[in-house]
C-alpha cells in the first residue's frame, strides 16, 4: 500500500492495535472512571474491542469502511453504558464517510473526513461540545489536526499522527475542566483534576490508528 493511501489492511491493523491498547490500559481506564464515572469503562472497552478483533478474523474486508462498519455494529452490541452507542456511532459514521466518498482507499483528506464524521456522530449521540469534559475533547481536535495536515498537502500517515497527538493533548486538557455532561457532571467541581476516561480511551484508539498507518 502506498504511503499516499490506506486500505483495509490498515483498518484491520488499527482494530487489532486498538484491542491491544485497550487491554494493556484496562486498569488505567477503570481507575479514571472510578474517579468520576461508573467505574466500568476499562472493562467495557476491553470486552468490546476483544469482540471486534474476534469478529474481524472471520472477514476478508474489501475496504476500510467495511472494517469500521463491523467495528461499529460489534461495539454497539457488546459495550455497555454510554460508550457502546457513542463509539459505535462514531465508527458507523466514519464507515459511511469512507464508503460513500472515498472508495476502497483513504488519503489524507479521507482521514480527515473519517474523523470529522466520527465527531459528528459522537456529538449527535451525546449532545456534547468541546470543553465539557467528554470524549469530544479528544476527537474534535484530532479531526481538526487531520484536516489541517490534509490541507497542507501532507499524507494520510502524517494526518493520523497529527490527529493522535492532538487527541493525546486533548485528553490531558480535560483534567482541569468541570464536567457538564454524563455521569461525571453529577460531581460538579469535584470532577476537576481528573482526566475524562472517554477522552483517554479515544486517545488510545487514535494512537493505534496512527501506529497502524506508520507500520504499512
From TrEMBL:
The keyword rRNA-binding does not apply. It holds the Pfam family Dak2. InterPro entries: DhaK_L_YcgS, DhaL_dom, DhaL_dom_sf, Dihydroxyacetone_Kinase. SMART domains: Dak2. GO terms for molecular function: kinase activity. Residues 9-211 form the DhaL domain. NCBIfam families: dha_L_ycgS (TIGR02365). This is Dihydroxyacetone kinase subunit DhaL. The lineage of its organism: Bacteria, Bacillati, Actinomycetota, Actinomycetes, Micrococcales. The gene is dhaL.
